[in-house]
Amino acid sequence: MSIVGADVSLETVDLMDEDLFEAGPPHDLFTRMRAECPVLGCETPEGGEYWSVTKASDISAISKDPDTFSSERDGVFVRAGMPMPLDVLNQVILGMDPPRHTKYRGIVQKLSLIHI
User: Fold this and answer.
1) Most exposed among 8, 38, 39, 41, judged by the fewest C-beta atoms under 10 Å?
2) Distance between CA 19 and CA 109 in Å, rounded?
3) From the centroid of its chain, how far is CA 10?
4) Cα-based angle 109, 72, 31 (whole degrees, multiple of 5)
5) In this structure, how many other beta carbons lie within 10 angstroms of the beta carbon of residue 6?
6) pLDDT score, position 85
7) Containing H/E element for 103?
8) 41 forms bridges with which residues in the sheet?
């Protein structure tokens, strides 16, 4: 049985809870979050913390401000026991900030234009 977005408390929602996605992306929950709390501080049951940002304009602004919102500084994983140490994560594009991220993204974009 899937969880309905209207039934979720926004004060305690954990978007890392896989049950929320059992029937696919919880679009009704995301719509509600955009309307009621587009930027929400969340906690995981394990004690991790993260920010949920649901409006495209906010996501765009955040992506253009790596000094404030750094992937390199704190990483991008919120659970204890990250899949890889931060110094290793910083060597893949997901864990990089500009200008390194921009450089490698450009390389990947050029390669994606090559048709095999």
Assistant:
1) 41
2) 34
3) 17
4) 70
5) 8
6) 72
7) helix 100-112
8) 51
The Cα-based distances of 58 to 8, 47, 96, 98 in angstroms read 23, 25, 20, 18
Tell me how far apart the alpha carbons of residues 20 and 11 are, in angstroms, rounded to a whole number: 15
Q: Which residues pair with 63 in a beta bridge?
A: none
Partners of 39 in beta bridges: 53
Location of structure tokens 């864990």: 95
Interval 64-87: pLDDT, tens = 898 898 888 776 665 555 566 777
Q: Which of 56, 11, 19 is nearest to 36 (CA)?
A: 11
User: Per the structure block, which two tokens stand in for 60?
Assistant: 């765009």
Question: Quick one: tokens of 74?
Answer: 């704190």
CA distance 86 to 96: 11
Q: Which two tokens stand for residue 61?
A: 């602004």
Question: Model confidence over 12-62: pLDDT tens digits?
Answer: 888 888 888 999 999 999 999 999 999 998 887 777 778 899 999 999 999
- pLDDT given at position 1: 46
